Amino acid sequence: MQPINFYRSPDGDTTAAANNDASNPDAPATESSEFLFVDLYSLDLNGAPAWDVLAGTPGFYGAILKAAQGIKGWSDDGGWFNKSWQDLRSAASDRYGDTWFRGAYLFLNFWQDGAAQADNYLDTLAAAGNWDTGDIIPIIDVELGQDGKDGRHKRNPNQDASTQQIIDCTTACADKLRSATGRNIMLYGRGAMRDKSINDKMGCDVVWNPCYTASIVMNGLEAWTLDDVVLWQYCGDGTAALDPNKFPRSIPDFGAPDISVYIEGSNKPSLETLKQRLGIGS
User: Fold this and answer.
1) Which of the 8 DSSP states describes residue 143?
2) Which CATH number among 2.60.120.280, 3.20.20.300, 3.20.20.80, 3.30.559.30 corresponds to the domain 36-259+272-277?
3) pTM of the prediction?
4) Measured in whole angstroms, how far is the alpha carbon of residue 252 from the centre of its chain?
5) Which residue from 251, 227, 224, 225 is spatially nearest to 237, judged by alpha carbons?
6) How far apart are CA 262 and CA 269, in angstroms?
7) Which of 1, 31, 82, 148 could form a Cys-Cys staple with 155, CB 3.0–4.6 A?
8) What is the 3-state secondary structure of the chain?
9) For every one of its 282 residues, what pLDDT tens digit does the chain have, with 9 covering 90 and above?
């Protein structure tokens, strides 16, 4: 699989381009990135992902799971994370920690205490066996959620949070996670920061940018640079703008989850730097 690279066009946009084979620079770039990840929560793929299929699909290097939302007792996934966290590791066998990695994220409720939500997340990880050497740094999911306008979903109270409320909640969560784990923290999201005019890293170190356009967009992430982005979620439930011949929108016999690609700004990605920036082994 060919690693993805990024270049800046004359007008300043950041665009994705697949690298040709270094041994044959004239070869067409027809393969997708080397470092792809899926992310799932308990209601995706009928709650039963075929992890062995994913682990056997070229180009995929692991998955990131929703571990918790809110404070202790606020949400319950019926044990899905606990089981999936263990199954995700065993599916890859000896690939784990070398070319197969796990991640876990916390979906923040902005109206609840950020540090208490961090505690719930840490307790959830501990109950599932905790982190190990092949696991990605803690991830905080900062989203406004559903606005209720479709008539099918309830309005998420996150929609009504103030700018300062989001900053305070996220920062408190990040500070608690860093203190408890000694690890860097990843921020997922962009829309909440854009819509609430947030120009603050909120205690986080790197970014996971959801952006389903042909060029990666940083609108809402003005506190960051492209070099701070470690994952680009280019596909959401099968929806993407990138060339499907290079960047898959679904996985045979697995499904059509959210898919992300590891990036290193304008540099060519490598497995070594992936491990460093995602905190593998830390």
Assistant:
1) -
2) 3.20.20.80
3) 0.89
4) 21
5) 251
6) 7
7) 148
8) CCCEEEEECCCCCEEEEECCCCCCCCCCCCCCCCCEEEEECCCHHHHCCCHHHHHCCCCEEEEEEEEEECCCCCCCCCCHHHHHHHHHHHHCHHHECCCEEEEEEEECCCCCCHHHHHHHHHHHHHHCCCCCCCECCCEEECCCCCCCCCCCCCCCHHHHCCHHHHHHHHHHHHHHHHHHHCCCCEEECCHHHHHCCCCCCCCCCEEEEECCCCEECCCCCCCCCHHHEEEEEEEECCECCCCCCCCCCCECCCECCEEEEECECCECCCHHHHHHHCCCCC
9) 233 344 333 233 444 433 323 223 333 333 334 799 999 999 999 999 999 999 999 999 999 999 999 999 999 999 999 999 999 999 999 999 999 999 999 999 999 999 999 999 999 999 999 999 999 999 999 999 999 898 888 999 999 999 999 999 999 999 999 999 999 999 999 999 999 999 999 999 999 999 999 999 999 999 999 999 999 999 999 999 999 988 999 999 999 999 999 999 989 999 999 999 999 998
